[in-house]
Structure prediction request, 1195 residues.
Amino acid sequence: MRVPLSWLREYVDIGDVPVDDLTERLTTAGLEVGGVEYIGVPGPPGAGHLVWDRDTIRVGRIEKVEPHPNADRLSLVTVDYGEQEPKTVVTGAPNVREGQMVAYARTGARVHNGYSEAREIVTLEPKKLRGVPSEGMVLSERELGLSDSHEGIMELPVDAPLGAPLQEYLGDIVLEIELTPNLGRAASIVGVAREVAALFERQARLPSMEVEAAGPPAGEAVRVESQVPGLNPRFVASLIRDVTIGPSPAWMQRRLTLAGMRPRNNVVDITNYVMLELGQPLHAFDYDVLVERARRGGAEVPTIITRLARRGESLVTLDDVERQLDMEDIVVTDTEGVLAIAGIMGGAESEVSGQTTSVLLEAASWDFITTRRSTMRHSLFSEASYRFTRGVHPAMALRGNQRATRLMVELCGGEAARDVVDFYPEPARPVVVELESRTVTRLLGVDLPPAEIAAYLERLEFQVERDGGRLTVTVPDHRLDVTIPADLVEEVARVYGLDALPGTLMADPLPPHQVDRTLIVEERIRDLLVAAGLTETISFSMTAPEREAALLPHQGGAQDVSEAGYVALSNPISQERRVMRRTLLASAMENLQTNLRHRERVSIFEIGLSYLPRDGEPLPQENRRLVIALTGPSEPLSWHTPESRAMDFFDAKGILDELARHLYLSERVTYEATGHPTLQPGRAATVCLDGRAIGTTGELHPLVRRANDLPEQRVALIDLDLDALIAATPENFKLSPVPRFPPVMQDLAVVVDETVPAHDVEQAIRGAGVEYLDQVLLFDVYRGRSIPEGKKSLAYSLRYLAPGRTLTDEEVAPHHAVIADTLRRQFGASIRGLDQ
Amino acid sequence: MIEELERLEKEALAALEQVESVQALDQWRSDYTGRKGQLSVVLRGMGKLPAEERPQVGARSNELKNVLEQAYEERRAALEAQALEAALAAEAIDVTLPGRPVAIGRMHPSSRTLREIYAAFADLGFQVYRARDVELDEYNFQLLNFPPNHPAREMQDSLYVKSPDQPEGAVLLRTHTSPGQIHAMREVVARAKAQGASDDDLPPVRIILPGMCYRNEQITVRSSVQFNQVEGLAVGRSITMADLKGTLYYFARRLFGPERQLRFRTSFFPFTEPSAEVDMDCIICGGTGCRLCKGTGWLEILGCGMVHPTVLSNGGYDPDIYSGFAFGMGPERIAMLKYGIEDFRYFWSNDLRFLEQFG
Prediction:
């Protein structure tokens, strides 16, 4: 909301308060000043706006207008600006005329260049225009930095004080205040004035609302009823006859403009002005139109009925758009149909026009939730709906109506009918809140005496009755936001100042230790992966089914882009992000794409959720997963490694092995060759934990690679159910003693069929049941010379250890032989060096 | 014969000076002191000498042998030193060539910052509590004192989930981590009650709630449809707003330096009352005004307040007995300030050229 200080000062004296103090105090009290606009007056250093010099830019009057002797389009203008000698100015302004009050700038004044929209500041030099010297300039709004208008000079009101520095007369400071939804009460100049008064210990003044009424009572000219008093607690109508529609006075137009509204005509301007001033939105109907409509229906006087819209009803609103109404919209109607969408926008037919002579002025209160829904439904955001959707107290309706009626009598030459029609079946009862002073202490942590608490509240116009530490507080009827003691505590804190509160550390006892183990293990995993050279990514959880279908291209996946099986959004920000991901692999593809555009080697991981809908459950299953992607040379490019090996399946598996070891799960994690549509056949494995599948690892299928626009290089992937892995991670582990006696090392090279998995051979070695065998390490896999076609040689280094003594080769030999025998029997293996 | 030995000594030592390699040195040794060497040849003539001269010649020849052996050792040591020096010289390298790169991974700056936040609050006894991403409107809004259609909901534009079995808008992506407040309080209360605790005897809560949050906002320099949030919640019998201030001061000074100042501004959140926004004095200009703080001298870092009585009740804590504070911040925002990151989109780019800049 825009608050011109010139307007604010009408209701509270703050002439002595520096602008910085004002903005700081308002901001810390919750009325955040998001910006300060300086108009013609000096601002803080670096503000960069145009300052109207007090001496050189003044209010002037055009004394004489004569044609320029040498140019048809220019005129010579004599300007009185309060000094003895008037000045002669050459101007091309088309709207210049004698007697006009203007802004005059003498030679030497600094103004904006009127011929440029760049708002550059120029200094007026003495110059001649077509041979006639021009002493300064009569200014346009653009030259004053007020607007971009440069069609003519700016005309000042006739009562502008001749010779006064323009800065004094028209200069201003406008605060831009950002209001949180609870601050509906401050969505007006008077509302802000009340806050300022409370914060600076001043007295706020209200504008006059007294109406000098004449003529027959309004109740004889209009009837008001409501079918929905719950949604329309109050409807106040007054009638102003014999108004003359015309422009509103300059001061009012100026204030409306500064506050961000466009002046229309005096009646409409008054409704807007009072809304800005008091916060009560108003609507003016052309009364004669209402009467005409009533007569069509055979009635003498119009009857205003508020109700919900009926099926099929529509209304052409002020902006000439025909709007279909919803049965939840509250509408203002008469016997002939809808006149306005309540609290949001009026209809075109009953709008005040140049021919209007009588005005029916509505000031009502509406249910803020229903109004908000209608605002959203029709996308009609107006100054009125801004206020109604934040809540306006019904008490404000009469005040707003009376203030506007008074102004219409004063400024439109109208005559107000006696009395108002006030439909208010259940007047709002004052809200009374009991507050114990110790509640303030308990919540704020500072011991405030009851009298001090009462004083703070009274500054905000609360009425307080005090009985020891017990305060009975009546909430003023311009507020709807205070209903419970905690609300009052906030009010006390605002006036007391949060900055004055001490900062303490909690004296409350610590809660019992309840640690989130999943996070602890997750963080361990994150550390390990970073140590293994992987960089962490964090991707959007939202994706498109097409993107995940691109993981299954050879299954015709790209065609199958239905949202079935997805957690789908009903209002996504884009089609690209319309469902929640089912897999992190598609995120990995995106991240590979991003990075492979500018590098060859990428090794990344991501820990995040996948989302799977569950039948009969409102909420999906959220599964924490780990995805790893490796591609490019095994070592970063440097002069040392011109030809580095490309990362593949075993790089991924190495990380998995290390991860399993790290979590003390080595013994329980196994791999089985598998087929997976995303992965290259023959280079993919299921990762099992205790024999149960918890993920997949393998190399990306070349077709998937292509479908994801990745370059032709191997990509090794891991996709794991992290929840399962974490759940299985033991809390503690047992250290083995470090052997003190030397081991016996024996190598064993076994020739087996190609089809025999290495894992089976190793299991057989370990399972042979021999004593002293401590470690089995596969150190070579060999095919080729001296190995028959279809066979491979697996070479193991076996370590034997005896606790507490040194083993000898002789002792080990029989055990070693048992292992060899087992392998021969189980796999038909031959032992190199023994059997060959 | 003595002269013969004298001559031999001179010759041998002269020859030794010409020796430049270990091989030549061994040759020299066999030439002079070896079994078939010159010294042996000379001594072979000893038998022909008169008996009285023999001891003298013998002594002299022993002496000569010692001299030559010693000269040999010295020469050998010198040659070996030379050879080593030459060998090492041959291995000299250009020390200005780059080292072998170590493939180091990096944590995402959001994860990093989350850890810093956990650590700071762990000092004050806060434990981490995690909750789900897809939530019910009930938990995300209603139980947190956002009535349906309340204008406060406009502050947090939601992304709704299509759920055929549920009323429109019943399921959404959480817009903040606050639903975790209700989950956590209810868990603690249920556990305590299962162990026989009464309503006025409930254990305190002190938790940090991290998590991904979602809002219907476009992805720009300053905002994103998805972002991390961290909330803190402390509930107990004596938790005050002054405690909230002290806690946040501790946090700000720990992360951003011991001189940091905070400014508390009253604000509005439906789930706290009183509510406040917290600004920190600008870490670049220290409060005098610069581009980062847009000339205000302050940087907005978090929102906070005393837990609203309705929220306490919904969590199972009687607001007449217990009080609590809550605060919430964006770790990305904290990271932006801490590392001078100017564009929110970097956090979601997953561009290694960004991620690898974090040491």
In short: Chain B touches chain A through 98 residues (CB under 8 Å). Residues 54-90 of chain B form the longest helix (37 residues). The beta strands of chain B are 127-128, 134-136, 171-173, 205-214, 226-236, 262-269, 272-281, 298-307, 323-329. The radius of gyration of chain B is 43 Å.
